[in-house]
Amino acid sequence: MQNLNKGVFSKDPNYNEPTMRKEFAQLMPLRTIVIYCYDPRATGIPSAVAQEFGDVYPGETVFDDEGNGIGTTCTMLNVIVAGGRAVDALRSITVGQHLLGVENIVVVHHTNCGATSYTADGIIDAFKHEHNADISNLYDQGSVCITDFESSLNHDVQLIRNSAGTPRHVNIYGYVYDIDTYELTKITEDLSSTSHQASAVQ
Fold first, then answer.
1. Segment 7-24, tens digit of pLDDT
2. Quick one: which of 5, 24, 7, 149 has its CA closest to 99?
């Protein structure tokens, strides 16, 4: 690449951030952010969530007259992290809202996950002995592993809700995905006050 920064929008001489945000939101109609595990067995989660929420996934690329990919019909953004834990997704939520807008955030943990096979104390001790590194204060211990799905999902939904980078109007959900049956089970939800008001009117 002769000009490595050719595709950096903010380096364009006519760059205007409010205009750029409007264009991004029009070209990428985001509704739902789904947070799930990087385990290869969990790849069915986005499709299951899309079906549950009526989202478009994977969608199609939108091209301009010159054949450049400028957008998508997909309405769902995937955030793929270890164990599907929300702590690793907080910045992505903030950026997603800033650029594209968000209506729903869905946290999905899955059965037979590697994050259920160790404890917070176990990984801390292992890093101390195997890597000579103290990670005891590196992460909130409630976000390090999964001891049971109800606790982990309630923790993650509240972590997202309490983050200053999470917009107040979004609905937040916690699901378990069964990797054998491909079924989603809702464990918890934290609906926005707007959603509560809409439900009351109906």
1. 788 888 888 888 888 888
2. 24
Its pTM surpasses 0.85: yes
Q: For the chain, how many structural domains are there in total?
A: 1
154-170 confidence digits (pLDDT tens):
999 999 999 999 999 99
Report the CATH number that the domain containing residue 171 is assigned in CATH. Answer: 3.40.1050.10
Q: Are 42 and 177 in contact (CB under 8 A)?
A: yes
Residue 183 lies in a domain: yes
Higher-scoring residue by pLDDT: 142, 68 = 142
Rounded Cα distance between 42 and 40, Å, is 5
Element containing residue 149 per DSSP (H, E): helix 149-162
Helix or strand or coil: residue 109? strand
Please name which of 72, 61, 153 lies closest in space to residue 105, comparing C-alpha atoms.
153
Q: Cβ distance 51 to 34 under 8 Å?
A: no
Owning domain of residue 178: 17-114+146-193
The verdict on residue 172 lying in a domain is yes
Residue 22 domain-assigned (yes or no): yes
The two tokens of residue 89 are: 């997704």
Contact predicate 107/86, CB 8 Å: yes
DSSP letters, 48-99, are HHHHHHT---S--EEE-TTS-EEEES--EEEEEEGGG-GGGGHHHHHHHHHH
DSSP 3-40: -TTTT-GGGSTT--HHHHHHHHHHHS---EEEEEE--G
